[in-house]
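Quick one, tokens below:
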């Protein structure tokens, strides 16, 4: 089958299999799949999905850790024109049962343990007609759910007569504007919403990314981020499809396991959120890992402390600091190879030529360079909208195609973006606006501070005051007095947190960011 390469993810898979058939596509534990082998497995599963009655535009729900089964299911859904809704592997059954009605999946693919936990809720998911389990025959024999199928059985079964022709016919129906993914936002500032990303959205974003960052067919990219997130499913996975790079998969992030895998598999591109980098830097034997294969480091997903950014940049010849979000299918700004260290530390780069970025005030009027306001993004990468939430669509998108991100930042005269924080995280103390990301960046400059998070809490006099949760470096005792002295040196009085809480652990979200919702419950 041949398809236009640049219009649909199914075509991208065909192009990768045709151009790099014998190059490694996936490395996971003892498994090594070439691009040809991956495409063959995807075709088998796509045909099996069609045999189950999956129609063009149907939704397939998936809850799985970062494993090859996720990618194969994801691409098989694309192959038969279905929409994939990924549920975070850490979601509880109650969370899945609350989110699934937004996406209305007709088929659920679950790891065996997740299927067992979700069984009491299955009767409430009225759209679901089929349950497919990622597990072994013993799990299936135990009856995780009546009428369930095994993914391994579906993938290895001989295609029924006519299914190959039916799959070919289905390919002719696929359109660039078809929904490809429903990605649930993190929900750290409220209930998660399902962003609808089309094939055109994803291809627009990643074609720009690959051109700017220069992914190569010889690259080996670590994939250890949640696959229900745009970083795993789009930035890395689709980036590899565009370029023919190998995906070196790790089921769950762990700092030691990650660095060990980088050394063993000679990984060339390592992209992570700031907290992941910091956790690795905290390892007392970090210097013992052989990271000499790295040619590119990427950091995005949250503001990066300057000290961490400098260290990230020192690990490879090329470092990328970027900004993006779920609703834009990934990064829309990036630093350039020619940017100096100060630009890398101070900014998240500038927009690709395909995308527009501006800063607006509360009336959504464009602000001049240097002024702080809400970040707005426009371009073919911007989502189609949220599922079943028209009010959210009206709030986030305007008639001219601008996406209002809720992130706060400023642009300089050259168009470089500095991210200040989230609008919903901003608090007002004594009439002054305080942006937690600015406080966090400054506290992180203290030599004893490894990671920190700042939140506002109600105060009867000031309205709100700041509370800083601080994780010190191991074996470096840190006092509140030291932190206050540090703040007196470099922060205005109204920005200095009223309270410091020093801890040996900070809660993390599944995406590896500090879980501010969990911290807020401690206030």
């Amino acid at each position: 089958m041949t398809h236009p390469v640049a219009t649909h993810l199914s075509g991208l898979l065909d192009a990768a299999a045709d151009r790099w058939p014998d190059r490694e596509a996936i490395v996971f534990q003892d498994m090594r799949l070439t691009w040809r082998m991956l495409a063959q497995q995807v075709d088998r599963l796509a045909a099996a999905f069609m045999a189950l009655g999956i129609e063009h535009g149907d939704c397939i729900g998936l809850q799985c850790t970062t494993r090859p089964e996720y990618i194969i299911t994801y691409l098989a859904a694309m192959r038969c024109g279905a929409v994939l809704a990924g549920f975070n592997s850490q979601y509880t059954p109650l969370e899945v049962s609350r989110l699934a009605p937004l996406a209305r999946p007709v088929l659920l693919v679950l790891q065996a343990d997740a299927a067992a936990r979700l069984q009491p809720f299955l009767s409430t998911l009225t759209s679901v007609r089929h349950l497919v389990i990622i597990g072994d025959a013993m799990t299936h024999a135990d009856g995780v759910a009546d009428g369930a199928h095994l993914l391994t059985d579906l993938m290895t079964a001989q295609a029924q007569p006519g299914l190959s022709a039916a799959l070919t016919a289905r390919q002719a129906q696929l359109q660039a504007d078809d929904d490809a993914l429903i990605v649930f936002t993190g929900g750290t500032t409220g209930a998660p919403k399902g962003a609808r990303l089309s094939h055109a959205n994803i291809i627009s974003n990643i074609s720009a990314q690959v051109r700017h960052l220069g992914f190569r067919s010889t690259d080996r990219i670590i994939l250890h981020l949640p696959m229900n997130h745009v970083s795993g499913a789009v930035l890395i996975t689709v980036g590899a499809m565009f370029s023919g790079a190998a995906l070196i998969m790790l089921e769950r992030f762990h700092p030691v396991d990650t660095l060990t895998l980088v050394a063993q598999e000679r990984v060339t591109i390592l992209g992570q959120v700031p907290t992941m980098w910091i956790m690795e830097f905290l390892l007392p034997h970090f210097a013992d890992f052989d990271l000499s294969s790295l040619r590119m480091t990427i950091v995005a997903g949250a503001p990066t402390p300057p000290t961490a950014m400098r260290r990230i940049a020192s690990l490879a010849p090329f470092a990328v600091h970027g900004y993006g979000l779920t609703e834009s299918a990934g990064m829309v700004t990036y630093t350039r190879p020619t940017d100096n260290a100060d630009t890398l530390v101070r900014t998240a780069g500038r927009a690709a030529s395909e995308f527009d970025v501006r800063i607006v005030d509360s009336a959504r009027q464009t602000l001049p360079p240097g002024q702080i306001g809400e970040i707005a993004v426009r371009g073919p990468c911007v989502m189609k909208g949220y599922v079943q939430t028209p009010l959210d669509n009206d709030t986030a998108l305007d008639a001219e195609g601008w996406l209002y991100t809720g992130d706060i930042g400023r642009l300089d005269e050259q168009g470089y973006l500095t991210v200040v924080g989230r609008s919903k995280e901003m608090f007002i103390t004594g009439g002054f606006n305080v942006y937690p990301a600015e406080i966090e960046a400054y506290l992180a400059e203290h030599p004893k501070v490894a990671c920190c998070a700042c939140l506002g809490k109600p105060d009867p006099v000031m309205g709100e005051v700041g509370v800083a949760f601080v994780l010190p470096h191991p074996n470096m005792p840190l006092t509140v007095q030291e932190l206050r002295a540090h703040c007196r040196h470099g922060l205005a009085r109204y920005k200095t947190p009223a309270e410091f809480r020093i801890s040996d652990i900070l809660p993390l979200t599944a995406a590896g960011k500090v879980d501010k919702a969990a911290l807020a419950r401690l206030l």
